[in-house]
Fold these 4 entries.
Entry 1:
Amino acid sequence: MLRHDILHLLAAHPEKYVSGERISQQLKVTRAAIWKQIQVLKEEGFEIEGQTRNGYCLLKTPFSLNEWVLKKALTTISLGSKITLEDELESTNVWAKELARQGGAHGQVVIARSQSSGKGRLQRQWESPRGGLWMSVVLRPNLSLADASKLTLATSVAIVDAFEELYSLRIGIKWPNDLVFDGSKIAGILGEVVGEWNTVQALILGIGINVNFPRERLSPLLKATTLLEILGYEVDLNVLAAGIMKHLEKQVICLENKAFEELRSNWLERAVSLGEEVRILRGEQVCQGVFKGISIDGALLLETDDGEKSFSAGEVQVRSKIGEYF
Ligand code: ADP
């Protein structure tokens, strides 16, 4: 794409001006064509200064999701090897599942700037306004179905690590699949299996993060927060997406190498409410006890008056003792 070729040329000369004549010779297009593409790039959020005598200089790339910026930020081997970026999708997980059924490769990623019907567990709604990171990864890992279930844990650890590396911000993991800051949810994960009876063809890891939008953009009923709310400034969504892919790839490789204990201890180090009294809701049933940890399969271990009980992620909700979301 001509636009991307121009960007490559400008990015190869940081803080320098590249003349229109040089771009036109190198890319074999007219200077008018270049000018036109520069205007499109400015509309996409690139800050490019044009000087009649000196040419063009790339000052800043956009913080909003952009294919070129995202690819440039990527440091992975297989994750993000193919990226589909759409302005709006119903649900990135639904789209990724369809891609997987059609043979989509390991590491293929689907991202939408907004989702019209994003999903949580058990078909619950996930609010996905513009400015968030709504992304699904297709994985065909070298794992058994039982081990694959640990990928949700691995994804939680990857997101916490990315936040810490990029923003020096420590968030916590709320079992099984939520990321929280100060008791408010900032991100969620939805892992789904594509396959038929007993055979896994692919796994879909859906990641939803409240990033560059004010808290008010979400329903007031939710106990939620956004990165903008916490940090007080907007961040580069492309860098965040690339950072998460980097940490997720590392975690997937660890799982493939059977480093389960390492994953479990990493997860426990980042978990919230460990050692606290919690209530587990399974439909109408309520069970109370102390949150002791997780089993190697990722099931929650609860110490109750009747001994230790374990709960798998698919069926339950966790609440703090006083009934609040924690
Ligand atoms: P749970 O937290 O009970 O495990 P899920 O992981 O399935 O639930 O996530 C869906 C729930 O998350 C919704 O029912 C809603 O309460 C909440 N929610 C929806 N959108 C957002 C969002 N953007 N940020 C934080 N919480 C949200």
Note: The chain has ten helices and 16 strands.
Entry 2:
Amino acid sequence: MPRMIRPVLAATLAATFSLAACAQTRDETCLTSLREAARAQGMARADAERLTRGWTPEWAVLDNLDNQPEFKTPIWDYLAALVDDQRIADGRAQLAAHKATLADIEQRFGVDAATVVAVWGVESNFGQVLGGRPIVASLAALACEGRRQSYFRGEWLALAKLMATGDLDTSGPEGATAIKGSWAGAFGQTQFMPSTYQRLAVDFDADGRRDLITSTPDALASTANFLVKGGWRMGQPWGYEVRLPAGFDAGDAGRRDKQPLATWAARGVTPVAGGKLTGDGPAALLLPAGREGPAFLVLRNFDVIYGYNAAESYALAIAHLADRLRGGGPFAAPWPTDDAGLSRAERREVQTLLAARGHAVGAPDGLIGPATRAAVRTEQQARGWPQDGRPGQKLLRTLRAEPAPAAASATAP
Ligand code: CA
């Protein structure tokens, strides 16, 4: 039998070595092409070489390109976590802490403090969550392989330029990998892509660098610059919640289907706050959860926020957070669900309660990942509920009311 093993082993070793050689070729081919592209754009040879040294492309991010999220978050869950009491309190504290800077920004760019701080809060939790991947390596993989190479090559080159010009500090031991962000390359307190950073970042603290990673004044001013370049109009509302009359035909709802305010008024649409429909119309009717949930008329400034990240739920989160920071209340109409979403504090509580029952959900971080979903499904199954893996108010109430089984508690980590 040993005779049989030898050739197999040899073949395995040969395959391993050729795989290693392949990996090296794959890395080198990519890095060489990026270096040459940077040189072709006029970057000095020393910079092009320095910025492509000490790291290899993060090929694993290619899997993210085509992966659809397995779980579609209902709008009420999305908003419950993004606009929760903690973020409203944190946002008000930041408004106070950066009052003078925000007043200067409002003066210079014409974007109000609450909107700027709301974007900051949703993008990076006020500068606290910037992403953990070296984006030079993830953008390199996306620039060299996959179905959006040309777009990501432009982003990689924009990033390299920001590093070469010194806007981004890569002088430390980590070199180019010091700049961390999301898998797709958004980074810093504003979570701009490198090309957006290149185009719109502002050196507001006047230290000679456009630094959206460590300078809050730069980050806040750059957010305002993004919005004003997108067409923001100072003093105009993004929109507001409205009430629809009984029997209203909502067939023409949709962000793109704008009509004059007078048309909506004639059809019986009224602001829930009372008074007349106001703003720089035309406006579109937004029904994020259909005819039975809250309804909104959205104006031009809503589209500007949408331009930051093309999702209506995202734009609504920022618009609503800005209103809450100004002292506004929650939406008047309830979401069409009997199982409302959880704030981040409530998510951590659910995770703590699940852990007490022996589920391996890890440290309670308020992020609902596969482990938490699996634990939720087990608890749902035990109660004969539909097993969608979604933790809501119903599960939270139930877990609070039921003491954890003693055996499960004993084995809890
Ligand atoms: Ca600066």
Note: The chain has three domains: 31-66+130-225, 73-129+226-337, 344-411.
Entry 3:
Amino acid sequence: MIPPSAADLADHRRALAGTPLVGLFARDPQRFERLSFAWDDWLVDVSKERLGAETLPLIAAHARSLGLEGWIAALFAGEKVNLSERRSALHTALRQQGDAPLNVDGRDIVPQIREAQARMKTLVGALRAGKRRGATGRPIRAVVNLGIGGSDLGPRFVCDALASPADATALHTAFVSNIDPEHLTRALAPLDPATTLFVVTSKTFTTQETLANGAAAKAWLAAAFGPRVSPGPHFVAVTGNAAASRAFGVGDDDTLPLWEWVGGRYSLWSAAGLTIAVQLGWAEYGELLAGAAAMDAHFRTVPLERNLPAVLGFVGWWNARHLGHPDRVVVPYAQALELLPSFLQQLVLESNGKRVTRDGAQVDGPTTAALWGATGSNSQHAFFQWLHQGTREAPVEFIVPVRASHPRAQQQALLVANAFAQSQALLEGRSAEAVRAELSRQGVAGADLEAAVAARVCPGNRASTTLLLPELNARRLGQLIALYEHRTFVESVLFGINPFDQYGVELGKSLAAPIAAALIDGAPLPAMTDASTRGLIAHVRALSS
Ligand code: F6P
């Protein structure tokens, strides 16, 4: 196929625009079969998206013309796909099954991955067997991860998703990320300093929130043990900056590596996932990695037209760039996936929330949509009103594990039914005629009936994707996360941007330092500081004095 130009794609969008989604189904009886994609008991249905028969092939041809297949190969080969920072993005190496060599700067990184994993395994075994002891000689029973962003969201999401309510012998795990002192205070309230281990997770070991919580954790231990007892046995660090963790007081034996070629938001596959392994045990942790590796193999080898991350990326790009949707709503119908939307917010928005291309030019259209969401069925009783009857369309992704982890009567079938009903309602809506007929059946008539119609009409014609996974366990969760990582990468290639840097978060960090100095010590503010910020600081100082 001759690659379509941007104008061809715009023409295609205009040609589709006149036909409602139900019309696209009416026109093509094979639409579901054509636009749903199966892999390893997964089913990804994009037939309710605003796509014609030609849309995905056109986007695939466009993606090929942008070199998507070459970008995928470069990602896995460890080429420096993070151009602005001149780094590889080798999260896939961390879950590689087998020891095939993988060179970064001429050096095989697989042996160092295996060495770090062996150290993790020893530590996890000791912790789970009650053999790691604190300063008073008592075994560690609680592990608290101190980290933020990628050093928190991924591990926290996985631990929450795979929590096993029945495992009474498991260690207690907790995550503290916020610099708000309330976060640490609440996490520590049920814990005993003598049996608590802190995992300070920070690739840079310079992140203000994590260092502040680390210092507060030390103070908590010192308050319990007195100044003469070393808190050393209560700390492990995961970092790329061993000198800083040493200065903080963590011994080299207790410092696990986090390499430059692992992006923060992809780091759950590294030692940053230590808390996951502590909670799951080594074998289950291996399943998580193996699941992700299976999705990696699929992404690497299956043609774009049937490749799940590619298809989802094509739809995401089409919705954002060509259909101009500013929102993307993620609704997992699984309580265990409650933290998926916030995990994806960092993965997707820190990766693709950019406005310049890889070579620094302004992008020529919108990049990623804002991503938000919450679990179904809860969110049906919150923002689904807006989705069904608000003034603009927001494409929804329904993520539905088919089998329950802990079945109770027919509740799983009810859950799945709710998901399907919502996507059907978004598609079909409810017409004025249908509302009239229903009201008539209820005995409403005349002016009362007419007055009641408008508020009850649902316009429908609103797009959604449904992802069915067979069940939720460590392997499937690994697949799900890798699916979203790769889909985000596909979209970045279509947008022409670098998904692996995040310079946008730096400015606020640097401005916080002089403001903190002004709040704490009354230090003068830089001359450029605006009147609003000065006024806010003055108000806080007046209240604090
Ligand atoms: O939010 C910005 C960020 O740099 C993320 O990319 C990263 O995951 C997070 O901060 C934490 O960084 P670190 O692991 O270095 O503490």
Note: The first helix runs from residue 6 to 17.
Entry 4:
Amino acid sequence: MTKVIACAHEKGGVGKTTTTVNLGVGLARQGKNVLLLDADPQGDLSKCLGVKNPRELTSTISTVMDYLIAHSDEDAHPDFEYTAPIRQHAEGVDFIPANASLAATEVTLVNSMSRETILRQYLDMVKDNYDYVLIDCRPSLGLTVVNALTAADSVIIPVQAHILAADDMDALFKTIGRVKRNLNPRLQVDGIVMTMVDSRTNYGKQIDTLIRQAYGSKIKVFDQTIPRSVRAAETSAAGKSIFQYDPKSKVAEAYQSLAKEVLVDAEKRLKRSTERSR
Ligand code: ATP
Ligand code: MG
């Protein structure tokens, strides 16, 4: 069974892309088949995976979404090359890139019949080949993010360990609730991941406590946090994950252990739901 996880937060620069790449490669290192999907017209995930100039790509996530929007009247799509944008990365994950065309696709979606479900329709065609599909969302709550949440089984919310972080998430939770009620009842929140944590400072420890107090009773906050490190910031330019760039670093260790935590949680959830359905 495939699990589709949207990595989402309305706020920019909280570590969504870094988490998608390194959690994805971390899951692949645990033997899982992983597809990473860039759902941000900035194309940051694509750049992190070594695409030098996303603008030059002719086959991206928007190419397939545009096709499905244009052919929404048809039951079958025999001419549709739905695997065309899927690429292989040297570190054992597949990925689908994005570029600025995705911003135009989002505009087209507004008047489309299936404006919230195009991405789900597409992922349903390709996801069976994978154990995990991770979607790197853009920093917004617009239609592309709604598409990602509609296609997803769950959401992981990276939160930059900062004193204001606890105030930032109301709009995101409203959107998740709206998608769950109207479009995707199975949507769950897997948890909040604290990124860029300065755990050696008192300030860092206070923020950890604050976020766990503010959200911990309602939502899981992953035990594993991601430390702040310049090595993490350097990986995007290198086009590699932290596991290739600096395998012995604290950040590599943290993302590997986050991947294990995600796997353990997924197994627990699966066990609970099979017990319930007996
Ligand atoms: P956007 O909202 O623009 O898509 P994002 O939420 O995807 O941003 P990232 O791009 O992953 O966030 O990270 C923001 C910046 O912080 C990047 O420059 C990244 O390299 C850096 N960064 C990410 N994780 C860490 C870390 N653990 N320590 C230090 N810097 C980090
Ligand atoms: Mg990003």
Note: The first helix runs from residue 16 to 29.
